[in-house]
Amino acid sequence: MADEKFDAIVVGGGIAGTVASYLLAKAGLEVMLVERGTFAGSKNVSGGRIYSHSLEKIFPDFGREAPVERKITREKISLMTEESSVTLDFYSGSLGKQGSDSYSVLRSVFDQWLAEQAEAAGVMIVSGIRVDDLIVREGKVCGVIAGEDEMEADVTILADGVNSLLAQKISLCRELLPSQVSVSAKEIIELPPEVINDRFHCQDNEGTAWLFAGFPSGGRTGGGFLYTNQSSLSLGIVCTLSDLVEGDKSLPQLLEDFKQHPAIEPLVKGGKLVEYSGHLVPEGGLAMVPKLVGNGVLVIGDAAGFCINVGYAVRGMDLAVTSAECAAQAVLAAKDKQDYSEVSLKEYETNLDKSYLMQDLKLYKNLPHFMESTPRIFDGYPRMAADMLTDLFVVNGQPAKPLLKNMFKHVRKIGIANIMRDGWKGVRSL
Ligand SMILES: Cc1cc2nc3c(=O)[nH]c(=O)nc-3n(C[C@H](O)[C@H](O)[C@H](O)COP(=O)(O)OP(=O)(O)OC[C@H]3O[C@@H](n4cnc5c(N)ncnc54)[C@H](O)[C@@H]3O)c2cc1C
User: Domain range spanning residue 411?
Assistant: First the structure.
């Protein structure tokens, strides 16, 4: 027998779950949010930088009110080999303009702020409880089971993150494939704000988002990331699981080597390690999106595979917010009709289709396969760039060679046909 009945139960106190529960409670529904961590955000990991466009629709002033770290005004991308780093450095005030602004965040702090907004809107947050199963009667999800407790609701929203065991239990999705997820290891390294400003050429409250390809993931599918926070750096690596198991280095070792790289070591020098975390990242794109709706149930955020990694930017948090909003709108429409069937809740899919989220996932649908099938991106090209620039800049008393001949020597190692094919496939998948 159920102990209590709610209009909606949301499983997972990450960005998707807290936003969905906030919107439903704000509209007057009785909502319970169940989070297995001791508080919302305690188990959550991002690089991370949140693009504000979707959250600003819900909390217009969140850039000022929420505990964000720094507004990102500098983007960097580096191709790395063991001893070199070739970097594209883009600074622009337009990166910080309202609507296209983005902020580095620390999830344990940021998610708590979101949870506070949800609680203030009337959400009952239950932390430290893991949902073990769903109550299913006559093919309809009627609530959740946590230990000995059963809690019923008209609708249940699964926001339990990547590898949603609950969605798997009711056959909305299959077990994840190792090629569809990356594994990450991340450190938060404390440094004084003025040291960060000096090392990253930042103004107060402005920051850098920096992605790395090549050496950080050991030349395998994946990469490194570095985000400047107010008084810390978020430094980490991601590596596709299927690739990682074939490599000879463990993830912690890859991260350690990345930290020791001559281009990184001076940036983290003197810093104090204050947090170490590991997490999965859904990287299969559209192909890994599960069945999103069932009778009395919807799947949102990472649990729905909503994450896009285009190599120069990672986006999961803004998608989590949008999926939460689309789901909340569908639940409110279902409540009006008093119909929580799959057919009624399919409005969630319609809302998603109308949003940028599905359009972007469709646009980038071939990208995961391109990355997976083009290992040169993570090995050959970083090396080619480093070799070319070495030849360009090294002056050692030897007679100089014609520039074209010098460059062509390195191009030949990969092959012009391969470069053209990769370029064509890469551009088409973007
Ligand atoms: C290393 C890394 C870097 C990233 N960088 C970025 C970035 O820079 N920008 C960006 O936009 N995105 C980034 N992402 C992706 C982003 O973090 C996710 O897309 C986002 O966190 C998804 O939010 P969510 O609420 O769906 O899931 P989560 O944040 O994972 O939240 C799921 C919640 O559900 C809870 N939960 C799980 N199972 C249960 C259960 N059975 N019962 C109760 N609670 C449960 C978990 O404890 C957790 O709190 C990154 C991810 C990683 C791992």
Answer: 369-429
Find out whether the beta carbon of 157 lies less than 6 Å from any atom of ligand 1: no
Report the separation in Å between the CA atom of 307 and the middle of ligand 1, taken as the mean of its atom positions.
10
Residue 1 is predicted with a pLDDT of 46
How far is it between the farthest Cα atoms of the chain? 86
CA 416 → CA 31, 200, 374, 385, 412, distances in Å? 59, 36, 15, 14, 6
Q: From the CA of 413, how far away is ligand 1's center (Å)?
A: 40
Q: Using the predicted structure, report yes or no on whether residue 2 has a pLDDT greater than 60.
A: no
Q: How far is CA 424 from the centre of its chain?
A: 26
Same domain, 278 and 189: yes
Tens of pLDDT, residue by residue over 162-195, are 999 999 999 999 899 999 999 999 999 999 999 9
Say how many Å lie between the CA of residue 44 and the centre of ligand 1. Answer: 5
Q: How far is the CA of 14 from the centre of ligand 1 (A)?
A: 6
Instruction: Express each pLDDT in 219-244 by its tens digit.
Output: 889 999 999 999 999 999 999 999 88
Residue 69 — pLDDT band, cuts 50, 70, 90?
very high
The number of the ligand 1 atom at minimal distance from the alpha carbon of 302 is: 26
- Please indicate, yes or no, whether residues 113 and 33 belong to a single structural domain of this protein: yes
Euclidean distance between CA atoms 166 and 173, whole angstroms: 9
